[in-house]
Amino acid sequence: MKLLERSVRRLEHADALDRPAGTVVNAINKWLPPGRVKDALSGTDLGHPVHPLLVTVPIGVWVSVGLLDALGGRSARAAATTLVGLGALAAVPATLTGASDWADTLGAERRIGAVHAASNYAAIAAYVASWTARRRGRHRVGIGLSAAGAGLLGVGGWLGGHLTYAAGVGVDTTAFSTLPSEWTDAAPETALAGGEMGAVMVGTVSVLLVNRADGIVALSNRCTHRGAPLDDGSLDNRCIECPWHGSRFGVGDGQVMRGPATRPQQVYEARVRNGRIQVRQPDEQRTLRTNPVASGKDDGTTQVAVRSTPEMPSRSARRRE
After folding, report:
1. Which end of the chain is more exposed for a tag (fewer CB within 10 A), N or C?
2. Phi, psi of 100 (to 5 degrees)
């Protein structure tokens, strides 16, 4: 385990990967701008990333091939050959969704993702070569190539797990951003005077306050997609746009109006009492979300940053390139 951790730490600091990875990411972003296709590949309409779902198909198929090769004998050769080809076909949508997700990463996450993708592409190539060999009657060669593909797939899968469970890529970045259950001071009512929105820290949670005609709206200031500060984004009457990747969220309900985000923004309860803006966690979220790091009661505010209507960020700004 220590060897694996040391290896992945080296990859995280392998800045030699930045230039080639950046070139590929720029190409992906050029051909895959925010919109319906990007949303479909991200899993926006599903409410969760679609890539983890799709990778189970080729992995399951190729694991079955390994069992047939080990236990099926000659009678299983035809079935194994068919399954190898089926797995290669099923890998196509999985790689497309993975490339879309990877294009929204930076730094260490992008470096790990590059090696993760390279391992998986090499595995696909090995299985395609295995299918070709099997079709030509060279079954022993095909079995050897499948075994190599399985090893490469294992490396890619471990790195993919690291990206999700260690780096948090693809998870809701606000999952533990929980406010107190009682009304808590966030800012003076005058904090938004002359502006439309501003960010304020309530305990350990960054809260975005939006000044609308029907009252103050409070929601998480961290984009659920990759954690961008939404107060750096752009606002109109209906939605706020993330400054990094262009996700759009409804101001009133936090729902995703355009991806690549898949999870809605947390919307907190807000009110004005005695000249103070107060916020709290909604009842329906109290049992679902708890913060294991910040415990106790938080009150007070710091660093209220109020902005007038911001200019629309450029695409390069949204991509943080």
Report:
1. N
2. -65, -45
* H/E element, 305: strand 301-307
Q: 1-28, pLDDT tens digit by residue?
A: 688 888 889 999 999 999 999 999 999 9
Nearest alpha carbon to residue 183 among 294, 297, 289:
297
Q: In this structure, what are the phi and psi dihedrals at residue 202, rounded to the nearest 5 degrees?
A: -115, 100
3-class SS of residue 261: coil
Q: Which amino acid is at 297?
A: K
Closest CA to 176 of 210, 227, 217, 216: 227
Question: Mind listing the pLDDT tens digit for each residue in 254-274?
Answer: 999 999 999 999 999 999 999
State the Cα–Cα distance between residues 55 and 156, nearest whole angstrom: 11
What does DSSP say about strands 276-280 and 184-188: parallel, antiparallel, or unpaired? antiparallel
Half-sphere exposure of 307 (CA within 13 A, CB side): 17
- CA angle (182, 186, 192) in 5-degree steps: 140
Q: What is the pTM of this model?
A: 0.81
Residue at token pair 């995280």: 12
